[in-house]
Amino acid sequence: MASTTSHAPDAGWRKHLPVLNALLRYGILIIIGFLMLYPLFWMIGGSFKNNHEIFSSIGFIPKEPTLDGVINGWKTSTEYTFATYLINTFKIVIPKVIVTVISSVIVAYGFARFAIPGRKYLFALLMATVLLPKSVLLIPQYLMFREFGWLDTYLPLYIPQAFAVEGFFVFMIIQFMRSLPLEMEEAAVMDGCNSFQVLTLIVAPVILPAIIAVALFQFMWSMNDFLQPLIYLSSVEKYPVALALKMSIDVTEATSWNEILAMSTIAIAPSLILFFAAQKYFVDGITSGAVKG
Amino acid sequence: MTNSVKLTDVKKSFNGHEVIKGVSLEVKKGELVVFVGPSGCGKSTLLRLIAGLDTPTSGEIHISNKDVTYAHPSKRGVAMVFQSYALYPHMTVADNIAFALKIQGLPRAEVDAKVAEVAEILQLTPLLKRRPKALSGGQRQRVAIGRAIVRQPDVFLFDEPLSNLDASLRGQMRVEIARLHAKLGATSVYVTHDQVEAMTLADKIVVLNAGHIEQVGSPMELYRRPANLFVARFIGSPNMNILSVKVAGAAATTVTLETPQGLLEIPRTGVVATNGDTVSLGLRPENLHVAADGEASHLKGHVVLIERLGGETFAYVALKDFGNDPVIIKLSGEADLHNHQEVGLRVDLDRAHLFDAQGLALGQPLGAAPDVGAGHV
Is B14's Cβ below 8 Å from some Cβ in A? Predict the structure, then answer.
């Protein structure tokens, strides 16, 4: 313990120890944080560079800032502007988030509160699907959706989510629900609620942090999802951002990296904005399920 | 309509383990009945059966002369106050109280009027806009009670409503509940493990043990005439002293007991026992007194421990030749005693209790009417 001892003549410097300590700690944290975020800064900086500057310097601040990357990138090399692809993305992501939240909450409530026969085994099965690599499902699912005639539509991308297929989300909500006092729900039953009303009027508002966390996770993962749209979508006019970006790397021989960086920056903006807007709830949602007694 | 709640041979098993072993009980309209018993005796389970949160394995439950054995909790005319308050954390106090009425679909104006009325009764009016987390324990409890009152149920159910409060607040809320019950006159079933709550609040106490009823009666009746050893030990603080003795003779109005310190004759009628039977003599701590010098005493022993609580003193006296645990005596706060002191004890023989080998009360005290109002805890 570094306590100051007044009678020792050379102990004066010790009283600055906490300040030095803080400087050292924050110094290291800032340096490491900067290193980790550097690619992100570089991407944003790269959006405003011209194409040959990107590879000529490691710095992220453009020497000759230009909007060419943004303007040309937005136009894209296709007949559609980047706006089309952004809207397409939301056409997939928004329904996906909504059905994920609804189905996960309902299934979690079932697992957490109802004595369903074989609940233990069903839950184990659900957990097992979390461990299952997504790619093993691709071929059977593709064949199934082809039979449904859903190829080149957005349906295969979000309809499965209506059946609470994300075991991780269900698990997360179950854990959160388990921390709720049962008496609260019993009070609601005594007040005249049926199970559905207990869920919608009492449980759902109380587990809102968990719901927001699920919505955010799903939003970010879906924004970034590349494989599924690639498999199910064939017409360019239906492409989401992830495919559109890849497309601009393919089509021209000399790739305009500044355009790609500019559009990537725009593409991550919604996730970032949403995350910071919901940060308070999101962090609550991750931690409180575990900590709350 | 004299019965508000009627249980007929109610049984409840969980996973083949019988928790309620056939309980029959009637609660009259306007009565406050307290279920009391050690933890795990089934008192909360019984309350949940009445509430409809669990259904009995067999038996019938009637509320206001309607068979509600399998009815939905909200259709029974009961409202419940939970131990943990169980308020809805995302709603204001007003919304918490109004919730049941809104679910029923009452018009808004009517709901608001009822909430205002209840808030007035419970002095919650200034808190109506607050969320539960901004309330103290006592206030939360009042909201929980308000949520029950607003539905104007036939029967109120209280599940250990005061056990989450600290001691002084508990005393205060106990008085408030008693006042509220006097004011509303509603039939109430109240579960507690705290015998002070049971004694002070109850019109009728139901002592439960291991899933069956040990005795039903008014607080003083249970105190004065416990039907068995369990009730005798459970009601009263400190516990009743139980001494193992032998019957030496039973006459019409007296029983002679043989103790290691000689014969003891206690007035009691209707005792059926054979000489030599081992019985239990029950003596309440306040019915034992230290005999003054020269005064005749019934039992002798020496003090092993003295607990001074200020207003009163408990002395633990090891009786000579008895081999029992020391008996506890309740004395005044100023009692002049010290450890190892040899004392003679005077016994209020007319207040002695007698139980047979099965633990059932033997005979009755003379002048069977209990004198209510005598000092008790």
Answer: no
Mutate to test the interface with B, among A186, A191, A212 (most CBs of B within 10 A): A191
CATH of domain A74-291: 1.10.3720.10
- The C-alpha of B101 sits at a distance from chain A's nearest C-alpha, in angstroms, of 8
Q: Where in chain B is the domain with CATH 2.40.50.140?
A: 238-355
Both tokens of B334, joined, read 């100023």
Which residue out of A190, A199, A281, A288 would a mutagenesis test of the B interface target, given it has the greatest number of B Cβ atoms within 10 Å?
Answer: A190
Residues linked to residue B257 through DSSP beta bridges, in sequence order: B247, B264
B15 CB within 8 Å of a chain A CB? no
| Closest chain B C-alpha to A203 CA, distance in angstroms | 9
The closest alpha carbon to B228, from B357, B116, B140, belongs to: B357
Per-residue pLDDT tens over the stretch B46-81: 999 999 999 999 999 999 999 999 999 989 989 999
Separation between Cα atoms, residue A142 and residue A140, nearest integer Å: 5
A154-178 as b/e: b if 16+ CB within 10 A: bbbbbbbbeebbbbebbbbbbebbe
**Predicted ipTM?**
0.82
Which member of B78, B90, B100 has the closest CB to residue A206? B90
Residues in chain A closer than 8 A to B88 (CB atoms): 184, 187-188, 202, 206
Pick out chain A residues at pLDDT < 50.
1-6, 287-293
Scored b (16 or more CB within 10 A) or e, B333-355 reads eeeeeeeeeebbbbbebebbbbb
Amino acid, single-letter form, for residue A182: L
B238-355 has which fold?
Answer: OB fold (Dihydrolipoamide Acetyltransferase, E2P) (2.40.50)
